[in-house]
Amino acid sequence: MFHPSPEMKELQRSNPVVRTRLPDGRVGWLVTRYDDVRQVLIDPRFSRAAAVGPEVPDAGLGQAATDTILSMDPPEHTRLRRLVAGAFTARRVEALRPRVTKLVDELIDHLITLPQPADLVENFSFPLPVQVICELLGVPPADRHLFHEWSDTVLSDISGDPAEIEAAFAELSGYFARLLAAKRAQPADDLMTALIEARDAQDRLSESELVRLCLTLLVAGHETTANQINMFLLVLHEHPEQLHRLRGDLAMIPQAVEELMRFAQLGASGGGLPRVTTEEVELSGVRIPKGEAVIPVITVANRDPALAPDPDRVDVARPLTTHLGFGAGVHHCLGAQLARMELQEALRGLLGRLPRMELAVPVAGLAFKNGMIVRSLQSLPVRW
Amino acid sequence: MAAWRVTVSDECIASGSCLGIAPKRFALGDDGRSHPASALMAADEAVLDAAASCPMEAIAVRDAQTGEPVEPR
Questions:
Q1: Given a cut of 80, is residue A147 above it in pLDDT?
Q2: How crowded is the C-beta side of A300, counted as CA atoms within 13 Å?
């Protein structure tokens, strides 16, 4: 649960750029060193748009990324990204911090009224990011019961039924079409209203792009953060000396969040979205021909000794200047600053107010939901 | 054609966003941060895209002659 496979680590040491048959039977290049993965994510010769199609391996990432901003290259990607980038800058996110601190407090106020053990997934790790992204977008948080299941299905991995995934996309699209109509009639101070303005007054995106963009922001905006809240707590639970250190000095939290982003695996497969080379590229002395699928194995790259000495050790005080936990390049996580801030406030609230909080079941007894591209715990029972 | 003066501040977190959007206009330095490929450059829409897409708002574009801000405005 906490470490990349020994085979992947061995690849990084001895065969860092290797052509191989992937679990779905298709052929692609696995790239595992930090510098190389970073280049694959940033260098425009590795195309996302060219990586969408039946012949490209999906590395266990399912269909979630096709037909959205995640599968576009510049300049199309840039046109859409520019429309939303301003809402997620460090400055804008900092202005949201007091609101998030208050939400964290309210969720903990409620949590401690519950009988113990209580489920942290249901009562904290999901509701926090859902509430934040809903308020930012202008989606009624009370609709969570509506979109929760669709969102889970949209994030299905390759084991998912394509018809079911398509149906969930259609449901979510229909939901947003209705929301956007209501928002047009009654504009508000939120991102959806700003995007409607960009569509209706400036024609900067099509109606279907508008719907897909809102849908992507909602789904990407909460499943990921919820998972990382859970995984951060599990990693700290497994490293009690680190947890003790952090509880003793909550000012270390921002630094700890970076280390935990490096250490805790977000995606179920550990890989990033595949790219396809638009011309021949050389990586670590290996020539990758034009038109080949390339999988940047982010989880393993984050455990490269060249990035972090003694990389499989978690150290909340590690002076880390960078990592690939949020990816890199044009697809660098749009919500990275928001996620950082939410994760910081979540840890500050939980460690600060519930200093004796502990897992109520052994880690081995925890179950992930099956068949999803992000790792999503079914429940996380805790006592405090 | 207008010339621009482009700077990247210390706020840069090396997300690599600008390197992907305008690969000819930015380069990664030894310090791990992004730098303009040259301090002065010809006007290029991709540089404005990079500045507007930077998560840290670390990129500033000014008119080289007048010093007027081009992006952010």
A1: yes
A2: 26
Three-state DSSP class for residue B69 = strand
Query: What is the rounded distance in angstroms from the CA atom of residue B23 to the CA atom of residue A78?
Result: 13
Residue A331's nearest CA partner among A91, A40, A29, A132 is A40
Tokens of A177: 């079409």
Over residues A273-286, the pLDDT tens digits come to 899 999 999 999 99
The rounded distance, in Å, linking the Cα atoms of A172 and A80 is 19
> What's the rounded Cα separation, in Å, for the pair A30 and A292?
11
Distance from CA of B23 to the nearest CA of A (A): 8
Residues from chain A that touch B19, judged by Cβ atoms under 8 A, are: 42, 329
Is residue A61 very low, low, confident or very high in pLDDT (cuts 50, 70, 90)?
very low
Angle at Cα A152 formed by Cα A147 and Cα A153, nearest 5°? 100
| Global confidence as pTM | 0.94
What does the pLDDT look like over A240-268, one tens digit per residue? Answer: 999 999 999 999 999 999 999 999 988 77
Of B19, B46, B55, the CB nearest to A42: B19
Question: A82 to chain B, minimum CA–CA distance in Å?
Answer: 5
SS3 B55: coil
* Residue that the structure tokens 């012949």 belong to: A55
B-chain CB neighbours of A89 within 8 Å are: 54-57
Parallel/antiparallel/unpaired status of strands A27-31 and A293-296: parallel
Distance from chain centroid for Cα A197:
28
- Indicate yes or no: CB of A91 within 8 angstroms of CB of B57: yes
- Please report the pLDDT score of residue A55 as a whole number: 65
State how far the Cα of A235 lies from the Cα of A198, in Å rounded to an integer.
Answer: 42
What tens digit of pLDDT does each residue of A198-214 get? 999 999 999 999 999 99
